[in-house]
Design a protein that fits this description.
By secondary structure, the chain is α/β, with parallel strands linked by helices. The chain folds into 2 domains: 1-100 and 249-346, Isopropylmalate Dehydrogenase, CATH 3.40.718; 115-246, Isopropylmalate Dehydrogenase. The protein is 41% helix and 20% strand. The chain is built from 11 helices and 12 strands. The protein has helices spanning 18-36, 49-55, 61-70, 89-96, 152-169, 186-198, 211-220, 232-246, 283-295, 299-315, 329-341, and strands at 5-12, 38-44, 72-75, 101-107, 120-126, 136-140, 143-146, 173-178, 205-210, 227-230, 253-257, 262-266. Helix 1 packs across helix 10 (299-315), helix 1 packs parallel to helix 11 and helix 9 (283-295) packs antiparallel against helix 10. The two termini are 13 Å apart. It comes from Edaphobacter modestus. This is Isocitrate dehydrogenase (NAD+). Keywords: Oxidoreductase. One of its GO terms (molecular function) is NAD binding.
Length: 346
C-alpha cells in the first residue's frame, strides 16, 4: 500500500538489550505501516553513558530538540547507575517535558499460562513529583535527607487523567493508593485532590486503599481492582508487582504522557547480562509502540501489530526464554511479521 502519511518519531534505542528490542520493534512497525499506508521517519539518538562518550552530555541537546519538534518518542531501556553516577535518564526526560502521567496497562496475553488469568488492570501514576523529584542532600556525614513533594496541581491533574480515561474507556472503578495514615499532609493532599475530581464522575466507583494493604490485596485478589491511581513511588513499585501477574516486565508496556510531548517505553531494565545474545523479549517495547500508534491516531496499524503479537503468543511456538520458549529476539520478531501477513491479521 502506498504511504499516505509519515510520522516523525524520536527513537532512543537505549543500551544493553535496548538496541536489539528497538530494532525488532522498528522492523515490525515499518512492515505494519507499509500494510496500512503509514510511514515512519526515525530520528535516532543515544542517551546515558553512550551519549556521554559521543557528546560529553548524558542527554544531548539535539535529543531534547528532537523530542520538542516531533512531540513523540519511542525509548528502549537505558541503564541507570545504582547509588551513584549520572541521574536517571527516565526521570530527567519526564521532568524536562512535564510528562506527568505514567500509564501502564497490565493485561494477559492469550495462550500464556499464569497463576492469574484474565488480568486487566491499569496503573495511572503521577510522574513528576514525590520522592522522585530527586531533592536530597547529606545533612551531616551519615545522614541524608530526601524531600517528598506533593502538590495540588500535580495531584489534581493526574486524578483528572485517570477519571477521564475511565469515562472514555468504560472503566468502572478507581482506587487511589496512599499512606495518608502516616503522611497526613502529603498523601492527605493527594487524596483530597482525588476526591474532589471524583465528584465529577458519579459513574466511576471511587475507593481508597493504603499502599501496603494494596500489595497484599493484589496478591490475594487482583480482580477487585480496575484502575490504580497512585503517587510516583507507589506506582513504580505496584506496576512491577502487577507485571508478575501476566508474565513479567518483558511483556508490559508503558507510556509517559504530557500535554505537549509523550515518550513510550518498555518498563524493564537494560539486562546487560544478555545483551547482544539475541535472547531479549521485545514484547514490552512492541506493545509500548502499539500505545504510541493509538496516541498518534493510527488505530489500524496498532490493531494489526497487537493482533499479530497475540497470535504468536496464542500459538506458543516462537516465544522467548523468559516466557518458556526457546526462540531469540529476531525469531520472535519474524514470527510477528509472519502473523501480520496472515489472512487473519489483515
Amino acid at each position: 500500500m502506498a504511504v499516505e502519511r509519515t510520522h516523525k518519531i524520536t527513537l532512543i534505542p537505549g543500551d544493553g538489550i535496548g538496541p536489539e528490542v528497538s530494532a525488532a520493534t522498528v522492523k515490525i512497525l515499518e512492515v505494519a505501516g507499509a500494510a496500512t499506508g503509514v510511514g515512519f521517519e526515525w530520528h535516532r539518538f543515544a542517551a546515558g553513558a553512550e551519549a556521554f562518550e559521543q557528546t560529553r552530555e548524558y542527554i544531548p541537546k539535539a535529543l531534547y530538540e528532537s523530542i520538542e519538534q516531533n512531540r513523540v518518542a519511542l525509548k528502549g531501556p537505558v541503564t541507570t547507575p545504582i547509588g551513584g553516577g549520572f541521574s536517571s535518564i527516565n526521570v530527567t526526560l519526564r521532568k524536562k517535558f512535564d510528562l506527568f502521567a505514567n500509564f501502564r496497562p497490565v493485561k494477559n496475553l492469550p495462550g500464556l499460562a499464569t497463576k492469574y488469568p484474565d488480568i486487566d488492570l491499569v496503573i495511572v501514576r503521577e510522574n513528576t513529583e514525590d520522592l522522585y523529584s530527586g531533592l536530597e542532600h547529606e545533612i551531616v556525614p551519615g545522614v541524608v535527607q530526601s524531600l517528598k513533594i506533593i502538590t495540588d496541581k500535580g495531584s489534581t491533574r493526574i486524578a483528572q487523567f485517570a477519571f477521564d480515561y475511565a469515562r472514555k474507556h468504560g472503566r468502572k472503578k478507581i482506587h487511589a493508593i496512599h499512606k495518608a495514615n502516616i503522611m497526613k499532609l502529603s498523601d492527605g493532599l493527594f487524596l483530597r485532590c482525588c476526591r474532589r475530581v471524583g465528584e465529577g464522575f458519579p459513574e466511576v466507583e471511587y475507593q481508597e486503599h493504603i499502599v501496603d494493604n494494596t500489595c497484599m490485596q493484589l496478591v490475594l485478589n487482583p480482580y477487585q481492582y480496575d484502575i490504580l491511581l497512585t503517587e510516583n513511588l507507589y506506582g513504580d513499585i505496584l506496576s512491577d508487582l502487577c507485571s508478575a501477574f501476566v508474565g513479567g516486565l518483558g511483556l508490559v508496556p508503558g507510556a509517559n504522557l504530557g500535554h505537549e510531548c509523550s515518550i513510550f517505553e518498555a518498563v524493564h531494565g537494560s539486562a546487560p547480562d544478555i545483551a547482544g545474545k539475541d535472547m531479549a523479549n521485545p514484547t514490552a517495547l512492541v506493545q509500548s509502540a502499539v500505545l504510541m500508534l493509538h496516541h498518534i491516531n493510527e488505530r489500524a496499524t496498532a490493531e494489526l501489530v497487537q493482533t499479530a503479537i497475540e497470535q504468536v503468543y496464542r500459538e506458543g511456538k516462537t516465544l522467548t526464554r523468559d516466557v518458556g520458549g526457546q526462540s531469540g529476539t529476531k525469531e520472535f520478531a519474524d514470527a510477528v511479521l509472519e502473523a501480520m501477513a496472515s489472512p487473519a491479521a489483515v
